[in-house]
Amino acid sequence: NLKRSLEEILKLKNIGKVIPEVGSNLGMAIHHPRDLKDIAAVEGRITKVNEKEVRAGCIGFGASEHVARTILTVMRYDEKIRSAMNIKFSEEILDICKELSFSISYFDRKDEPEGVKTMEWGISEGIKNFGNFGKVPEIIFDRGGIGKEPMIRIFGGSSDDVAEKARKILVNI
Fold first, then answer.
1. Domains of the chain (ranges, CATH numbers)
2. What is the model's pLDDT at position 129?
3. What does the pLDDT read at residue 151?
4. Rg (alpha carbons) of the chain, rounded to whole number
5. pLDDT, position 32
6. Would you tell me how many other CB atoms lie within 10 Å of the CB of residue 86?
7. What sequence ranges are listed for the domain Thiamine-phosphate synthase ThiN (predicted)?
8. In contact, 65 and 86? CB cutoff 8 Å
9. Do 83 and 153 form a contact (C-beta atoms < 8 A)?
10. Burial of 110 (0-12, 13-18, 19+ CB in 10 A)
11. Interatomic CA distance for residues 101 and 99, integer angstroms
């Protein structure tokens, strides 16, 4: 249940420490999604008020093109991975992900070809860079680019799975 997962995330102590400047989102696909409207997400994103307080909109289908493209791309590789959340990138957070033994990959925005959709290309690159025969890692990050904030993306089979991974990261910050 996406609403329950969002409520759990919003209750986490110091959640603001992992919310990027552009905001965060949590999304979940229905089984066998066909397009962006088959992905539920937070309308208007999860935004940071301060280190301890965040605000979030309501849940709605088609609410976030960004997280929807991310999930649809991942599902081309593994239809069981139906949820994603973006959080702030930092070396500290990346190190915590490694300590938690999350499977991790990356993409480099400077390698992005012109005229492609960034998330579709970037997530596909992250999966290719993972080098595990199309298996989807739990974490795909990038270090940003000109005008692009660095980001960590958490993937899981459900929004509860993603929320639990976010909780594990936060308790280690």
1. 2-171 (3.40.225.10)
2. 95
3. 98
4. 15
5. 97
6. 28
7. 2-168
8. no
9. no
10. exposed
11. 5
**DSSP assignments along the chain, one per residue:** -HHHHHHHHHHSTTGGGG--TT-B-EEEEPSS--SGGGEEEETT-EEESSSS-EEE--EEET--HHHHHHHHHHHHH-TT--EEEEEE--HHHHHHHHHTT--EEE--GGGPPTTS-HHHHHHHHHHHHHTSTTPPPSEEEE--BTTB--EEEEEESSHHHHHHHHHHHHHT-
Residue 94 has what pLDDT? 99
Q: Output the pTM of the full model.
A: 0.96
Q: Is the pLDDT of residue 52 over 80?
A: no
Look at residue 67 in the predicted model and tell me its pLDDT.
97
The model's confidence at residue 130, banded by pLDDT at 50, 70 and 90, is very high
* Tens digit of each residue's pLDDT (9 = 90 or more) over 14-25: 899 999 999 999
Contact 91, 104 (CB under 8 A): no
Rounded distance between C-alpha atoms, residue 85 and residue 70, angstroms: 9
- Identity of the residue numbered 47: T
Cβ neighbours around 28 below 10 Å, total = 27
